[in-house]
Design goal:
The chain has 432 residues and is of the alpha+beta class. It is built from 7 helices and 21 strands. The strands form 9 sheets. It has a 5-stranded antiparallel sheet with strand order 2-1-5-3-4. Strands 6-7 form a two-stranded antiparallel ribbon. A hairpin with a 6-residue loop joins strand 16 and strand 17. The protein is elongated, with a radius of gyration of 63 Å. The C terminus is likely disordered. This is LOW QUALITY PROTEIN: N-acetylglucosamine-1-phosphodiester alpha-N-acetylglucosaminidase. It holds the Pfam family NAGPA.
């Protein structure tokens, strides 16, 4: 079928010398040689071949659709989509996209899907859009065109059955290996898949070739393996890139350059084995020499780091020590100040005092007392004096009659020794 999907002229159709046995026509060539061909069909075909309306509407309206086509292997593909014009279904653009996804390389749109009835193995497989006499049922439309597709049988007189087997000559036979599972058995023998060759497709592509019939050349380098189907390179350990042309970057090794080196001082390793004892190429040695000049030696860097750390630590310790001493000095001064105040207050309240209670006296002084005190004082009558006065022996004393004139008081406050410092107020309100 793949050789006979094309436009025919009127002369070709009416040719009597080489007439067609069967012809199947449609409206709009959907797919041509693997590409959508709708726009070209709109410009080429006659719009009178359809009755939906304008040609553009016929293409874009949603409706039931039917198409026939074939894939790259020459197998016939029938397509049917249920629907009803302007209500449900698909347009021709959507149908063409779907057929492309299924691997169809040539396809034409048949009459509208509403005119078709799809029967598969004797069973109705479509949902007709026309109503029956009873509207609750749908009935197939009566049309005269029938497209029948079936497997080939050995009925024509020129069919020898070569390479076919089975009761209906439906099964191809390409020998015991049956193309080794890497090819397709055809009437002319095995047609190998990409990456395989030989009469029975048992040999993979070699000598750096790949693809269909091993016709394409591989470009892998450094002993990389070439995939016989797609030509992709599988790099050996130590190499990377699309064609395995680059060595692993410094510090990496192994398949795919995914393993880091573990050498001392961050030295590079062998990109293939990861061995740290290696003799580098002159180019790598020169590069490492140039890089080394840009960095200080590890010992110098370490000493500088230690010195910086030591200096910072020393200053921190000194600062903390001074702060601690300052706080300690402040605490000691505050404690001494509080202790001094407490001692002074305690000395005033609980000092070493001598208590001498005054006796009660009533009436006038005797003649002997008046003679001792002199006639300058007036007698005290009906006085009762009891003054519980505390006098510190260190700070105060009571004046005696010998020191100052006044009314004598027996057993008054006295200080064992020393001199009077301040007057003392007695019971009569006179300072003594």
């Amino acid at each position: 079928m793949r050789d006979w999907v094309r436009y025919l002229s009127e002369e070709e159709v009416l040719d009597t010398e080489n007439p067609f046995v069967q012809l199947l026509g449609g409206v709009v060539w959907l797919i041509r040689n693997g590409s959508i061909y709708i726009n070209e069909s709109l410009a080429t075909e006659c719009d009178k071949t359809q009755e939906t309306g304008s040609f553009s509407k016929f293409v874009n309206v949603i409706s039931a659709r039917t198409a026939v086509g074939h894939d790259r292997e020459g197998q016939v593909v029938l397509f049917h989509a249920d629907g009803q014009t302007e209500q449900r279904g698909i347009n021709l653009w959507e149908m063409a996209e779907f057929l492309l996804e299924q691997g169809v390389v040539n396809a034409i749109n048949l009459d509208g899907g509403g005119s078709a009835t799809f029967v598969l193995n004797g069973t109705l497989a479509s949902y007709p859009s026309d109503h029956c006499q009873e509207n609750m049922w749908r009935c197939p439309r009566r049309v005269s065109t029938v497209v029948c597709v079936r497997e080939p049988r050995c009925q024509p007189p020129n069919c020898t059955g070569q390479c076919w087997q089975g009761k209906d000559c439906m099964e191809l036979d390409c020998g015991l290996s049956h193309c080794s599972g890497h090819g397709l058995c055809t009437e002319t023998g095995c047609r190998c898949k990409a990456g395989w060759t030989g009469s029975n497709c048992s040999e993979a592509c070699t000598n750096g070739s790949f693809g269909a019939n091993c016709a394409q050349k591989c470009h892998c380098q450094n002993g990389a393996a070439c995939d016989p189907v797609y030509g992709t390179c599988t790099c050996p350990p130590g190499f990377t890139g699309d064609v395995c042309a680059q060595e692993c970057p410094l510090g990496w090794h192994g398949p795919g350059c995914r393993s880091p080196c573990s050498c001392e001082h961050q030295c590079p390793c062998d990109p293939r084995t990861g061995n740290c004892s290696l003799s580098l190429s002159p180019a790598v040695t020169s590069l490492l020499s140039q890089v080394k000049q840009c960095f200080p030696s590890p010992k110098t860097t370490l000493r500088a780091g230690e010195l910086s750390f030591f200096t910072g630590t020393t200053w921190l310790i000194l600062t903390l020590t001074l702060v601690f001493l300052l706080l300690l000095s402040t605490a000691v001064n505050v404690a001494l100040l509080c202790s001094s105040r407490v001692e002074r207050n305690q000395r005033h309240l609980d000092g070493d005092y001598a208590y001498h209670p005054l006796q009660e006296m009533n009436g006038e002084l005797t003649a002997e007392e008046e003679q001792q005190l002199g006639a300058t004082h007036h007698p005290v009558k009906d006085r009762s004096l009891r003054l519980p006065i505390k006098v510190s022996p260190k700070d105060s004393c009571l004046r005696t009659p010998a020191a100052a004139g006044g009314i004598p008081r027996p057993r008054a406050w006295t200080r064992p020794s020393g001199h009077c410092a301040s007057p003392v107020l007695l019971g009569d309100g006179h300072p003594q």
